[in-house]
Amino acid sequence: MVKLLQAGVAGVKTSKMWVKPKIMIHLDRGYDWSTQEWFYDSIIANGFDMSTVHVQGISCYPFWDKDNSTLANFKTNMHNMAAKYKKGIVCAETDWPTVCSKAGDNIPPSLTSKFPFSAEGQVMWVKKLAAIVKGVPGNLGMGVMYWEPAWIDNALGLQSLGSACESSVLFWGTWSDGKLVAKAMSD
After folding, report:
1. Which among 57, 182, 160, 63 is positioned nearest to 115, based on CA atoms?
2. Number of structural domains the chain divides into
3. For a tag on the chain, would you pick the N or C end, based on fewer CB atoms within 10 A?
4. What is the pLDDT of residues 85-108, one digit of tens each?
5. Pfam families, alphabetically (predicted)?
């Protein structure tokens, strides 16, 4: 893994781009500090130089782990990462469903009771995540990226693509609805 990461860093550093991109390592399970710590401590112990990384990215999906994918765990993880690794942190992937008939099986009740499955719920979700990211100590929280704004379940109803929910679509049938939600998220 370290050789692969080092090769990626070298590729960015030797590129001929007029502006050098920031280098980010992105892991899933943004609610799980033990996973993040294990990964980063392992690559460091095996010779990876963390000074070559500018940003740590994490995913925050509410439907991955009913027992643990809570906002409290997401916040704790980000604070622990900031304290230990002192890198910028971005929530590189998230979404909130608009339709989720299996929510009781997949999403922590602490979330389903606060965020409706609707466009309004999506706005509330992103604003809450943004507040958590903004509160990371040392001003190390760098932002939230909404991943796959056109997510719908596949035609066969398979859950193999990661979501147990039917729709996380972030746009609507009328342009005015989408503009209103986009404006609300930018406030």
Report:
1. 63
2. 1
3. C
4. 999 999 999 988 888 887 777 788
5. Glyco_hydro_53
Identify the domain containing residue 126 by its residue range: 20-186
The C-alpha atoms of residue 173 and residue 66 are separated, in whole angstroms, by 31
- % of the chain beyond a pLDDT of 70: 83
| Residue whose structure tokens are 């622990």 | 80
Residue 96 lies in a domain: yes
Tell me how far apart the alpha carbons of residues 22 and 9 are, in angstroms, rounded to a whole number: 10
Copy the structure tokens of residue 39.
């990964």
> Do residues 96 and 126 lie in contact, with contact meaning Cβ atoms separated by under 8 Å?
yes
Digit-coded pLDDT (tens) for 125-154: 999 999 999 999 999 999 999 887 776 665
Contact 86, 140 (CB under 8 A): yes
Q: How far apart are CA 132 and CA 27, in angstroms?
A: 18
For the record, the structure tokens of 163 come out as 């979501």
Structure tokens at 125: 């979700």
3-state secondary structure (DSSP) of residue 55: strand
d(CA 53, CA 75): 21
Specify the DSSP element, H or E, that contains 112: helix 109-112
The amino acid at 185 = M
How far, in Å, are 3, 20, 21, 33, 45 from residue 12 at the CA level?
14, 7, 7, 28, 23
> Angle 73-79-82 (CA atoms, 0-180°, nearest 5)?
140
Domain assignment of residue 10, yes or no: no
